[in-house]
Amino acid sequence: MRQIFLDTETTGLDPNQGHRIIEIAAIEIQNRQQTNNRFHTYLNPERDIDAAAREVHGISLDFLHDKPLFDDISDNFLSFIEGAELIIHNAPFDVGFLNMELGKIEKNKIEEYCFKITDSLKIAKENRPGQRNNLDALCRAYGINNSKRSLHGALLDAELLAEVFLAMTRGQEAFSINFTDENTEIKMAPIDQKNLIVIKPSEEELGLHDSYKASLNSLIDW
Q1: Which residue from 25, 72, 17, 16 is spatially nearest to 44, judged by alpha carbons?
Q2: Which of 19, 57, 89, 152 is flagged as catalytic?
Q3: Is there a catalytic annotation at residue 152?
């Protein structure tokens, strides 16, 4: 199973208000093992960045002025995610921005290029109802080191999301019983031998058994 963990950073909160993507990162996982394949780029949004958004990701317009446009990287990006399951934390947000960008260059929606889209935030809420389920909270819950995350960044967040998701969906693959643990006690009901019923084989069954053993011996001799 090829899975792509994806995150974006943007100029603001709403693509319908003209906000744009300024960073895309995608990390590939194959059969629950991270590969060396990844896609990462910054983008020139050709517009200002909201102050509130800049406080979240720390990306300035000066830094982005010489970066490519979305149209310039779209073919490589779509080729990277093609046929994979996209896993995104709060997927409607990123999908809304991606589809806005794709629409501007007259390409199909992101759903047309990938196998499916999975919202990891929805899974986290099902697993941890009533608790905070942002990426920082999930890192703490699953013991994942997020000390480098002083600001939001698409590449680091995609890497952390991959670790969180694998921990969150581990199921019983790590389940084991330690039979040597002194605190583990397996109790079995005592067997009352007086009440055991012994059924002896009939002469016909004994004959069939002897014939079966003879056939096995002939195979061994062969």
Answers
A1: 72
A2: 152
A3: yes
